[in-house]
Amino acid sequence: MKVLAAMSGGVDSAVAAARAVEAGHEVVGVHLALSRMPGTLRTGSRGCCTIEDSSDAWRACEKLGIPFYVWDFSERFKADVVDDFIAEYAAGRTPNPCMRCNEKIKFEALLDKAIALGFDAVATGHYATIIEHADGSRELHRAATWTKDQSYVLGVLTEQQLAHCMFPLGETPSKELVRAEAAERGLSVAQKPDSHDICFIPDGDTRGWLAEQIDMTAGPIVDSDGNQIGEHEGAQAYTVGQRRGLKLGRPAPDGKPRFVLEIRPKENTVVAGSQELLDIDLITGIRLSWAGPPVAEAVTGRWFGIELQIRAHADPVPARARVEGQAAEPQLVVELMEPLKGVAPGQTAVMYQGTRVLGQATIETARSHNYQPV
């Protein structure tokens, strides 16, 4: 097969490309330039997509003996990821930019261009597996090792996209083995640290960065009964479940810490309360997609059992779900068997059955028997 290897400049994508070459595929490496003004050097494990990363990707391709290209996706990245991130926070929601990047950049823009150029598949260094059945249908599953599993951030992929994806690291038991393999292959990125945090906010100061992008004004922090208990410097910089940064002058009557329960951007108000009020029992989701064939109950509107995961490294919780409406915008309804804390509108809810990723939806509402947001 003709395979396009997405080269981030890290050890995972380098080894994934090496395995694709070793498997006998015709491999071409490509690094995505996602910023018009990339930093020259990374700061430890913070940030990505720097000039250093591009150079590391090039050196890996040189070592593997495969062609290397840089594709400029900076305008698309700004529109679909960065601007979307700002707009979601401005609306009082908490987006996941990695999910949006996978959906819009790595497995839409990149994959579409690859197919148009005659490639059969795109290979990445993600830790996940694809199972193909005898009838040609495909399913997305967790990686062999739970600690490195990245199936959550791939939950936005469709069955059509899975048909053109390769995840060569999916069955690898540990990251240590990947680093050891990179060293044996003579790849200079063998001990390069993993990137963390949001790539376009490399210093990790999301609130400070948002303050430069969104017009923020001071406003009240109120308790669940509407009584003002403090003041914030901009409601959009907070997220549900947050504890730090509230700067409340007086303690709660029970002396316990208070957390953000709700963001009301139209009123420029933050609602804070006890941790117990963060227990979520019911979630509704929009922008529903399936990572493989939909379950049969999706068409009939019947309940089906799932495990729900709302963060990349969170434990899934048992739940049941059903799909309401079969129009252009069906809604996912999820009843949780165990409460989840700090669920925020805008987050991504990924559904599992065992190791299989069923699909995902963007959380629109999160309800609790203890507290009902406005």
Give structural notes:
Helix 1 (11-22) crosses helix 6 (175-184) and helix 3 runs antiparallel to helix 4 (97-116). This protein folds into 3 domains: 2-125 and 168-184, 3-Layer(aba) Sandwich (Rossmann fold); 216-275, Adenine nucleotide alpha hydrolases-like domains (SH3 type barrels), CATH 2.30.30; 278-367, Beta Barrel (Elongation Factor Tu (Ef-tu), domain 3). 24% of the residues lie in helices and 28% in strands. Strand 16 and strand 17 (356-367) form a beta hairpin. The strands form 3 sheets. It has a 6-stranded antiparallel β-barrel with strand order 12-15-14-13-16-17. The chain has a 5-stranded parallel beta sheet with strand order 3-2-1-4-7, sandwiched between helices. A 4-stranded mixed beta sheet has the order 9-8-11-10, with no helix packed on it. With 374 residues, it is of the alpha/beta class.
Q: What's the layout of helices and strands?
A:
Elements (H helix, E strand, L loop, with lengths): L1 E5 L4 H12 L3 E8 L17 H14 L3 E5 L1 H17 L6 H20 L4 E3 L4 E5 L5 E5 L16 H4 L2 E2 L8 H10 L21 H8 L5 E4 L5 E5 L26 E6 L4 E5 L6 E11 L6 H4 L3 E6 L7 E8 L6 E10 L7 E6 L2 E12 L7
Parallel strand pairs: 1-2, 1-4, 2-3, 4-7, 8-11
Antiparallel strand pairs: 5-6, 6-17, 8-9, 10-11, 12-15, 12-17, 13-14, 13-16, 14-15, 16-17
Helix pairs in contact: 1-2, 1-6, 3-4
Keywords: ATP-binding, Cytoplasm, Disulfide bond, Nucleotide-binding, RNA-binding, Transferase, tRNA processing, tRNA-binding
Main location: cytoplasm
EC number: 2.8.1.13
